[in-house]
Amino acid sequence: MKKVFQTTLTEDELVSLIQRAITGLNKSNNEKDELFIDVHEAAGFLKYKPGYIYQLIHKTDIPHHKSGKSLLFKKKELEAWDQRRKTAEMNK
Description:
The protein is 61% helix and 11% strand. The protein is mostly helical.
């Protein structure tokens, strides 16, 4: 059974409470961006085939992390890597 609390808040207190809750949600969403994704998600994100991602891993050309047997990626690291790669290709 859920506990129900009855309280009296001023308008300012209610606004402050809502703002803190929204700030917490925004922080939570930003933290989700930092979560790891797997090879198939990374391939979809970069618009490559999973096999090509494995080739890049083998050449140690792409930032990745290992957790046991799992290969994991952070989206922000992939975005930065992809941008550097595209810039280098344009400068050739």
